[in-house]
Amino acid sequence: MSKSTTATSRERTRTFQGLAFLAPNILGFMVFTFLPLIFSLVLAFSDWDLRIHNMFRDDPIRWTGFEHFTRLLNDPDFWKYLRNTLFLMMGIPFGIAGSLAAATMLSQDLSGGTRTSRTRLVLLSLAASAVLMLAMGILLLAGMNIGGLQLLLGGLACSILIGGTLGGITIYRTLFFLPHFTSGVATFLLWKKLYSPQTGPVNAALRPVLDSLGAAVNSIPAPLLTTLAVLCIISMGLLLFKGLGFFSRCWREGETGTLSVIPGVILSLLPLMFSFRWLGLPFGAIGLLLFALLGLGAFILPRLLKGREFTCNRNESMGTSILVGALLMVAGFMFLGLGNVLYALPEMAETGLTPPEWLTDYNWAKPAIMIMALWMAIGSNNMLLYLAGLTNIPGELYEAADIDGATGLQRFWNVTWPQLAPITFFIVIMSVIAGLQGGFEMARTMTQGGPAGATTTLSYYVYTEGFETGRLGYASAVAWTLFLMVLTATLFNWKFGSARTND
Fold this sequence. Notes:
Elements (H helix, E strand, L loop, with lengths): L2 H41 L23 H7 L2 H13 L3 H15 L8 H27 L6 H20 L1 H13 L2 H11 L6 H18 L3 H31 L5 H21 L4 H23 L12 H33 L14 H14 L2 H11 L3 H9 L4 H12 L1 H17 L2 H8 L10 H11 L3 H25 L7
């Protein structure tokens, strides 16, 4: 036997041995992932319904072609739950920013330097904990409604403060990461108890604050609050001025392409477009909005008519334009919501300000879930990724920035943020995918998709259609539509979001 034949035989033997070791994983993937995917794709083009296709009623399965997908586009429930999904995804930027802020804090050295300074830090933590527990004891003796849960939370805060001081930054990193590896169902049940309208500690803490706020509002003239509401709308208009000026400058100087400007401008204009629907402001405020819109046209159009100083590709800086537009949109909605609250506050204070019903209120259910998701996102894997990225930034860059006299904000914007661009790009892609596919566990455990479908997302809609109503064909069509949305968002991020990650 020749040497080449022997080598080929050995190579085949090693290949078979490797495949034998991989066989359990390959079989598991085929049985539990690949074959169900193919089966669901087939179901999407059939009328398979457990109510009529079962052992008691054996009706023939009918192939429907694209009937389910056509029906889906005309289904108001699908569009409602898609809006719910996108609304919940508005918390993603805050979660990413919170993860970065937590990683920045947890990358600091809390050892205290010398032994004397460390001793002072420990004594300060003990004193702060003692003051906190003493204050809670005084309030309890004074007759305040402080239950066992509040005392437990106060003691836990003291333990965290002292433990972090004694154990160093590792203790705080572990505590921040706790929400991520804690059982999801247990966390959801805990937050459901926290949000309880009658007995939850959240409303127990809000009631005295709202009582004081109501008394203060009743003592303030109503026209003053209306004026503040109008100022919020004017601030929204000024922010829009600034944003559109930024887009026009980038377009004129060749930093952003013509096609890239369009989505950023549309996103930044959304709060103004929705203001007529959401705000119950008087006609004068609406006139101010129209005046602001006309002013925007008078300010922006002349700059656009001058033409471009430099040219670039039509899709240049698409990701940056969308990011800036999204930030302007969120800020505009914040001003819009604040103005709405200030305008309605006098009327609300007359009958008494009460805490929200949270998960049982149609208007508060989604914000309640977003607050919980933000708490969970801050200490997630994103924080660990940012921690790893911060430790890999060369110290020479910060030294050069210090020599140039850069401030803390300048150091972050010109050194830290560009160095973290690849990590941010990965986090954005994974967060968008998780956001489009998420929401099932929270809705199933906390609200059952209610109230009135306020917390039903597309993933939970797939579950209800497939396993509660039994319409497996239609549920499969929704699932594959969701897959196409995830694929489109991922390809879009990959195309336009990675252009500057390696600059």
